[in-house]
Amino acid sequence: MAKSTKKPTSGKTDKAAQPDKAVKPGKQSKPDKALKAAGEQQRRIQKDIARSDRKPTKEAEGAMQAGARNYPEPPFKKQHQPKPGSEAALDPAPMYDAPYYKGSGKLEGKVAIITGGDSGIGRAVAVFFAREGADVAILHLDESLDAADTLKAIEAEGQRGMALAGDVRDANFCRKAVDTVVKAFGQLDVLVNNAAFQVHASRLEDLSEEHFDTTLKTNLYGYFHMAQAAVAQMGQGGAIVNTGSVTGLTGSKELIDYSMTKGGIHAFTRALSAQLVARGIRVNAVAPGPVWTPLNPSDREADDVAQFGSQTPMKRPAQPEEIAPAYVFLASAQCSSYITGEILPIIGGY
């Protein structure tokens, strides 16, 4: 048998490895120098912060300005408009032309349809798409003056434009609009679902069935009808970009019906994106916060409009040209070919 190499123990333990001596009940151990130093360090940091808290802060006054140019901030002129609202009557005029944004052919050779494209976000997206090389058709309700101005802006970018008046609640109009665009421009590559109806109701009892029905039919049925008509004409590489809302993420106590439809649009985006992966069509959504468009002055009372957007961390609403680049990003295969089913919030900070 081989002898064991294990040395016999002497019963003693290495002093360095010994645990602290147990403290008997009723007695308290004394902190060593290292522990006292740690406590002093914490108290020193605490005093430093207390001194800092007493100093006046030097923060910029007013709204955050981080863009290529400065944007209007509250308070705005008190104003209210009848539905569906007019961009030409809005004061100050929404900023959509983005003079510092340079196109680079991200949508060259593409054809796009934008619902609610006569004003607001839709107008800015139309201009940006045209600047990126797309021919653009806008669908609108009865805002003929706004639509004419948007059409001029599209053509000023050197692209073909078309404006079609109709109601996206009508499935037959949606099918005819898509067919008209394809016949005129030869194809359809991008659909932007953007037309919306929004009117607040302070109490649930004030939300009539007609009001509720109008919101759902415009914001949900309209998106469904347009997507169904457009997908039939789209090939691989097509893109759908839906306009959601921060209210679809957080809710809004005075926009119960609107919030519900925007949450539905987010779910519709994710579900439809999964179905269309096999066909090579991407589906995404942009979820804006407050944006200076005719939608809100045609919803809110004049006093509320004057402070619109002031509750965001940036203390102002977005201008349409600040939102439109997101639509270019999600529509362009050069930028977002590996993105589908996503909701992109642009809400001025949480």
Your description of this structure?
The chain has 350 residues and is α/β, with parallel strands linked by helices. It has a domain at 111-346: NAD(P)-binding Rossmann-like Domain (Rossmann fold, 3-Layer(aba) Sandwich), CATH 3.40.50. Helix content is 37%, strand content 10%. It has 10 helices and 7 strands. It has a 7-stranded parallel beta sheet with strand order 3-2-1-4-5-6-7, with helices on both faces. Helix 2 (120-131) links the parallel strand 1 and strand 2 (135-140). Helix 2 runs parallel beside helix 3 (144-156) and helix 4 (171-185) packs parallel to helix 5. The protein is elongated.
Distance between the termini: 76 Å
Strand order of the largest sheet: 3-2-1-4-5-6-7
* CATH topology name of the domain at 111-346: Rossmann fold
Shape: elongated
Mean pLDDT: 91
Sequence of secondary-structure elements: HEHEHEHEHEHHEHHHE
Q: Write the CATH homologous superfamily of the domain at 111-346.
A: NAD(P)-binding Rossmann-like Domain
Kindly estimate the percentage of residues that lie in beta strands according to DSSP.
5-15%
Task: Tell me which CATH architecture of the domain at 111-346 applies here.
Answer: 3-Layer(aba) Sandwich
- The SS-based structural class is alpha/beta
The Cα radius of gyration reads 30 Å
- Total helices: the number is 10
**Biggest sheet layout:** 7 strands, parallel
Count all strands and give the number: 7
The CATH C-level class name of the domain at 111-346 = Alpha Beta
Ranges where pLDDT stays below 50 over 5 or more residues in a row are none
Q: Helix fraction?
A: 25-40%
